[in-house]
Write a structure and sequence with these properties.
The complex is a heterodimer of chains A (112) and B (113). Chain A has 112 residues and is mainly beta. Chain A is built from no helices and 12 strands. Chain A is globular. With 113 residues, chain B is mainly β. Helices cover 0% and strands 49% of the residues of chain B. In chain B, strands 2, 4, 5, 8, 9 and 10 form a 6-stranded mixed beta sheet that branches. In chain B, strand 6 and strand 7 form a beta hairpin. Chain B is globular. The chains are: A mainly beta (112), B mainly beta (113). At the A-B interface, strand 5, strand 6, strand 10 and strand 11 of A face strand 4, strand 5 and strand 8 of B.
Chain lengths: 112, 113
């Protein structure tokens, strides 16, 4: 079945460091790909998405590119801030399906 | 506008009791989803409602779990004869039909003693 694999956390970085959180997926057809974020004490919210190969999603300085050849959707940010501390979830919705399949989540902590 | 509303925010109950969790989706969203977030299993899909269509129940872990959606709006997730492994955060999400993203509520944290 469809699945998403994320790099295991927790990840701890200093402010202004470069961030990469790896995400790979297994799915039939052409899934849509998402990154959701859960800030401390808050609900899940969409960070960015991409719906077809080579699309780049971006928001709040974060970017991820839909790579069909490597079945990946890695999250990157050039300079992280303390306020980026949160749990990040990679997810997919398979072609013709609505439910989301999530990765395990990666807890990110940014130290000042 | 109002987001997805879930109640209660926290629920503590004894093993063997039944519990009901409520979700009020965003107005106009005809698609409604339940997910479960637990330490051992991560975030997993439970059930999906779309309009008057038969729900997709493929994620319900056992027959102790059921859900209904009355009037195409509010949904109730019921867990009968609760077990300790049911302890988790239960998340509800809604969206327009066949559209992403899904908008999530803050969840109900369920603890089974």
């Amino acid at each position: 079945g469809d699945s998403v694999t994320q790099m295991e956390g927790p990840v701890t970085l200093s402010e202004e460091a470069f961030l990469t959180i790896n995400c790979t997926y297994t799915a039939t057809g052409y899934p849509s790909l998402f990154w959701y974020v859960q800030y401390p004490g808050e609900g899940l919210q969409l960070l960015l998405k991409a719906t077809k190969a080579d699309d780049k999603g971006s928001n709040k300085g974060f970017e991820a590119t839909y790579r069909k050849e490597t079945t990946s959707f890695h999250l990157e940010k050039g300079s992280v801030q303390v306020s980026d501390s949160a749990v990040y979830f990679c997810a997919l919705s398979a072609w013709g399906a609505q439910k989301l399949v999530f990765g395990q989540g990666t807890r990110l902590t940014i130290n000042p | 506008g109002a987001g997805v509303s879930q109640s209660p925010s926290n629920k503590v109950t004894e093993k063997g009791k039944d519990v009901e969790l409520r979700c009020d989706p965003i107005s106009g969203h005809t698609a409604l989803y339940w997910y479960r977030q637990s330490l051992g299993q991560g975030l997993e899909f439970l059930i999906y409602f779309q309009g008057n269509s038969a729900p997709d129940k493929s994620g319900l872990p056992s027959d102790r779990f059921s859900a209904e959606r009355t009037g195409g709006s509010v949904s109730t997730l019921t867990i009968q004869r609760t077990q300790q492994e049911d302890s988790a955060v239960y998340l509800c999400a809604s969206s327009f039909p066949e559209e992403q993203p899904q908008h999530f509520g803050d969840g109900t944290r369920l603890s089974i003693l």
